[in-house]
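Continuing from the previous page of notes. For each protein in this section, the sequence appears first, followed by its structure tokens. Read the first protein now.
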Amino acid sequence: MRVGFDGRALTSPAAGIRRYARELLLALVELGEPLELVVLGGVRSSVPSGVSHVPAPLHPPTNLGWTQVGLPRVARGARVDVLHAPAYTAPLWGRVPVVLTIHDVSYARRPEWYPYRRDLLRRAFYRRSALRASAIVTDSTFSAAEIHAAYGVPLDRLTVVPLGAAPKFSVPSDEPLALPTGVAGPFVLHVGDLHPRRNLGVALSAVLRLRERSSAHAALSLVLAGVDRGAGDELARAAVKAGSPGAVVRLGRVSETGLLSLYRAASALVYPSRYEGFGLPVVEAMACGTPVVASRAASMPEVLGEAGVLADPDDVATWTAALARILEDVTWRDQLRAVGLARAALFTWQRTAEFTYEVYRRVAGG
């Protein structure tokens, strides 16, 4: 079976999309199945070893132009049996069956969070991509239900394929890793773009309360690893207003090594998001042995289970109490570490690849 893969995902501006595309391709190669993977378009240097590449043909220089002209043209020329579009949009024409990955539909269910909320053409494109696809892969049962509700896609065309933690997160190591510049002292960590739906104000409020409440936590900070999508300045202003400008550390995009060092050094991962299709940092943090405090919302209960603390996304008191206990109760922190490691072991990219391969086979009729 010859599967074409939209190569632009490997250099997507969204870190989660890049990680999904790369880790999935690597794991598919390792399966050892009779599967030939061909990355279509994108940057050749981003293509993993063991995967072939076909350059993009001439096409209009827009997302729509690539998806509706370039991608179907290169898929036809590459003679693929299945086309995998790993990031929300897919060709609306062509004979090659399409597997489309939709990680979440927050843009359809909560359009007020997005600057293009009035961009009817874009939202219609996403919807038509979903309705036209032969099969849709999504990350969680929550997300599958949301896609069905948003687009009316029949449930038999939706397959839940959970994501995983890369092996590097799961390998214990006492080797010290240098923290990114600006990070020092005790900190709690958030990984992901700084977006209004991430609800980071509640995590900052908890950190500020702890700094004010006890001298033992006076140096505690909230470290933010991710591109600012419009929420960072408000958080910084809130910290300054509280008299604790050092309570927020904004790093922007960090390297893979920097991310690993942050996970391992953090006192906890905080994930107060109101809406996630999966929440990959939750699994990666657990794989590193880092306690997790996450929202009791969207997919987070499904992913975290009982391996961490789930809190109402607006309950600052509960977030504060949970972080205080993690910081002060060594025995409980060790228990969270143990159950988190066990839970993370259930989420692997090999499992993601196995489930995805079965979708390919079904769509190809094999």
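Done with the first. The second protein uses the same format. Note its length before scrolling.
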Amino acid sequence: MRRKICVITGSRAEYSFLKPLLQEFKRVASADLQLIVTGMHLSSEFGLTHRIIQQDGFSIDEKVEMLVGPDTPIGISKSMGLAIRGLSESYARLRPDVVVVLGDRFEIFSAVVAALVNRIPVAHISGGELTQGVIDDSFRHSMTKMSHLHFTSIEEYRKRVIQLGEDPKCVFTVGSLCLDHIKRTKLLARVALEKKLNFRFNQRNLLVTFHPITLEKGTSRQQFQELLNTLDELKNTNIIFTKANADMEGRIINTLMEGYVRKNRHKVISFASMGPLLYLSTMQYVDAVIGNSSSGIMEAPSFKIGTINIGDRQKGRIMAPSIICCHPIQTEIRKAIKKLYSKNFQKILSRVKNPYGDGKTAKRIVDVLKNYDLRNILKKKFYDLPF
């Protein structure tokens, strides 16, 4: 009997991880791939990135609108409620055998809640990780408890999922899908990339993505301004910004960014969404990723470039030696940039290894999902650790 596997995506970054998994599913004769797109993918403010998914050759079975109102606690809560309703209706139409989700955002949390209520098994990718500065940390661990199969990127994260009471037989260490995506993507050469971006690289170049620290109230403006003040000091340096996600206070960051771009068009450019190809291709030619994006932690080390990780958003993640952590204060960011360009640190970059896998994650996940016995999987037992 063919198995209906429903994958859900709600953001640009998450889709870049899921793309190799979707490709792998399309090769499996015994599975029918279903794809639900929601969240930022359907918003013009965030680049209507569902078009990229379709350009990549994937059919979208359902589009679930959910983003309403401002990026405030009330606005996010309303969006989550709308998502649960819309996704429940989609599940009723598609009748999947298993729902596959990745990550920790509120869009995906809503998808898991709806699946649980509809008695559909959930396979969760990237559980067991920590991001102590954001509300996503709680969403992720809650999703672990509502899920039935777990695919973690490293063994330490697998142990953490088991610590949450999940049966070890249902938890698989498979690596990170981001490395699959890098391995499978034919990146653009510099001249072609500059033409696509309509932007010339300088002697030094930085890729900047900064998101709100959602467990802090009212800090986004000050923290991002500290970063902009530091960037203002740099010489012979061009900046490529990607905008913040649909998080609380995300629009504050994007407004500041737009103002900075208007004043510095000779050296700065910004994108609502670059798309996976342009983003990864850009990583080849920049000196570092700066901000607090997970891409600086999980993807940048594969390009042997530095990461300046600012603040607490990614606090708790396993990090390669190529990552410099600093407080969101101008003097600290300045020190981190100085370290980035130091001879000793550049030597470290030349031999850094990415701790998140080998680029074969998608196949491992598919091999489990196409064969795993889903009968009676909904009735979970709590796994107690031996004392």
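What the second structure shows: The first strand starts at residue 3 and ends at 9. The chain has a mean pLDDT of 95. We return to this in next week's lecture.
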